[in-house]
Amino acid sequence: MPVPASPVARVLRFGPFELDPSTGELRKAGVKLRLQGQPIQLLGILIENAGTLVTREELKRQLWPGDTFVDFDHGLHNAVARIRETLGDSVGTPKYIETLPRRGYRFIAPVEDIKPAPQAGVSSDENAVGTVPIATAPPTRRTGFILMVCACFAIGLAASSFAWRRFAVEGAATPTRSIAVLPLKNLSVSADEDYFADAMTDELITELSQIQALKVISHTSVMEYKSTTKHLPQIARELGVDDVVEGSVTRDGDRVRVTVQLLDAPNDRHLWSESYQRPLNGILDLQNEIARTIAQQIRVKLTADRPARRASSVDPEAYDAYLRGRYYLNTQYSTLSPVITARRYFEESIRKDPGFARSYAGLADAQWNLASFRHLSAESAYRSASEVARKALDLDQSLGEAHMTRALFSWRYEWDWKAAEREFEYAIALAPSNDTIRCYHSNYLAWRGRRADAVAELTKSRELNPGASFSSSESAIHFQLRDYPGLVRVSQAGVHSDPNEWLEHFFLGMGYEGVGRRAEAIPEYRKAVEISGGDQDATAALAHAYAMDGRTADAKAILRDLEQKHDGYVSPYMIATIHAGLGDRDRAFEYLTKAYQERCLDIVWQLRADHRIDNLRSDPRFQTLLHHVNFP
Q1: Which residues are within 8 A (CB) of 454 and not within 5 positions of it... i.e. 6 or more apart?
Q2: Residue 140 pLDDT more than 70?
């Protein structure tokens, strides 16, 4: 019995697009586009009848049988709109699909019937999976095509029900990829919505950062490319990425439209695009959906043990306040005022929607920053931050930022080193591409004396945020290790790179003083005080240097100002360092004891590394203090 000949595969080409009837796949320049279900079936019918009117009645008969209870007009309108969106077509000036009012549709572009090119690196058996052979004797060309596409679609539905779960568990064979989300463009009517587009960019980065095996460039670095005219290959080289996400945000009242596309940046090649329009209260699920879809497109491995996000909605006004809070918190760097503003917005967001987890995480982060700036006492900040961080994780266990805040307070306030290590590990596992978490972790590792681990973690931070300077973080590592020549070298480079960053001048002064060059340290401390607006650490360092240089009156004047300061929290540790410089050991230990009793954040960070209190280390009271703090 003769074996019947295999049917010849066909591809229908129109413009830059190709439709493969055997798989129901639409491609543009070789890249598969996301068009499935009734829209792809409808497109197939129109192409098979190119140049001919296909009536609404005919489409209803073939795509919406009589026993299907749907709103036909709504379904047909949505299917055509989805096709036009994918093809980039227009109702007013159509290139592909022409509407004949109240009658139907006509495909007006030339269609070429060609043989498909074999896919590189894919065997013929692999190509055969999921395809449906075309009948050798179809009743009509159009009906055969429709039956075949419908069968393909049914198989696709069956496969897709488990494909995502299998992919999340098994992962993909491709190596780790790197990606950058360029600043989303604000296409809203008001330019005042720029903050919304920037914050949406940051939220998408945060969402993608939770995916394992995907290196995501941080918000700080990508914002350098806002309104850039650089070509994608150049951006890819500068950021060191494989892929780029770009798009736009349009906000209209309580609705938002997000358009995103994924591009192979080095080759400037389109990979995938999609447009979403949702009510603002569904924005959380939309962000998660976009991130998961991008992950599918580039086939990276998802975090298998990451707690799943709960499907959730958020009050639009609460979300708006949250975005404003994140916007200000991202701009704070080393100044206090934006952090106070951010805290106010997070509190407003929580009032408007007490079930919104991210606002609690943001508020905990702000409280930590306010304590770091000594605007709040450690105790006051800890009470609030620990409560809201716990609330954030009760609502959403996947928030790495909340674990980071818990790690910082476990380290610097609770003095629970095991808990700190555990929380850092949780935070990094949940948000492996968050450079801020890794940067804090590098500081912690340096404090533990683990130089190699600290440097490795800081290197990862640099890879995630290539546009930022990590000089002050590297300086902190050298400070904790009492490597003063290294501290001078790194801080000199930092001052040269950013002369307006007070931390660089402060660390350079500490380095100079550590190697015995006090005369050069004093001008750096003065600059740090001036730029920071009077940061207590910089001010105390200047007073200590004055005291050691014999300028007792100048040192005591600064000491008096600090002791009489009434706004914010005055660190007793900083006052202790000035007394140490003046040679008053009893007063120095009085304030060190007060810092210990208040669990001042400075005492754990500085007690072992700070050269300003070296003249106290031989005193038995100092060893007792070390024992009470229970250093590892």
Answers
A1: 442, 443, 445, 446, 477
A2: no
